[in-house]
Recover the amino acids of this structure.
C-alpha cells in the first residue's frame, strides 16, 4: 500500500511539474505602427481621414502605400461629428459604437468585411486606432494607427 501511495505522489509531482503556465496570446497588432496587414502583406498607412456625413455618421478612411489601397469604415458615434473613444463593432447597424459597412479596395478589386472591431482612443486631435477585422472569402485585416486625422464635413 505504501508503494501505491508513493507512486501516486510521484506521479502527481511529475504531472504538476510538467504543466506549463498558459501564455496570454500576443496582440497581433503589437508590432505594427501606422500599418495594416491583409493577404499576408504589410501596408503602410500613408494618410488618414475622418469624414463627417451627418446624423452621427463618421467615416474613417485610410490610404495605404500612397494610394495603392484604401480601407474605409462607416462608423456611428454616440454624439457629434468626430470619432470618440470606444470599441466600434461591425454589426451592419446604424447605431452608436457600430460599424455599418467597411471595405478594402484597390483600383482592380474590393473586399468586404464580415466582422470585427475598431478600437479608437481619442486624445485631443490624436487618435490611436486598432483594427481587427475578418474579410469576406476568409482572411483578416489587422492594423494600428496613431496620429492626427484629416477632417472633412460632407454633411450637406
Amino acid at each position: 500500500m505504501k508503494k501505491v501511495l508513493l507512486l501516486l505522489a510521484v506521479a502527481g509531482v511529475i504531472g504538476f511539474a510538467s504543466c506549463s503556465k498558459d501564455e496570454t496570446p500576443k496582440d497581433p497588432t503589437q508590432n505594427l505602427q501606422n500599418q495594416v496587414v491583409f493577404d499576408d502583406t504589410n501596408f503602410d498607412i500613408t494618410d488618414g481621414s475622418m469624414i463627417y456625413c451627418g446624423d452621427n455618421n463618421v467615416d474613417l478612411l485610410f490610404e495605404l502605400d500612397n494610394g495603392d489601397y484604401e480601407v474605409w469604415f462607416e462608423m456611428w458615434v454616440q454624439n457629434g461629428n468626430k470619432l470618440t473613444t470606444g470599441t466600434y463593432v461591425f454589426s451592419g447597424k446604424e447605431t452608436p459604437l457600430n460599424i455599418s459597412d467597411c471595405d478594402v479596395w484597390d483600383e482592380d478589386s474590393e473586399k468586404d468585411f464580415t466582422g470585427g472591431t475598431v478600437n479608437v482612443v481619442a486624445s485631443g486631435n490624436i487618435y490611436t486606432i486598432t483594427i481587427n477585422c475578418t474579410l469576406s472569402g476568409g482572411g483578416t485585416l489587422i492594423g494600428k494607427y496613431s496620429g492626427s486625422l484629416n477632417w472633412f464635413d460632407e454633411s450637406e
Q: What stands out?
A: Residues 48 and 62 are 5 Å apart (CA to CA). Residues 29-153 form one domain. The chain has one domain: 29-153. Strands lie at 35-38, 41-54, 57-64, 69-76, 86-90, 98-105, 110-123, 126-135, 140-147, 150-153.
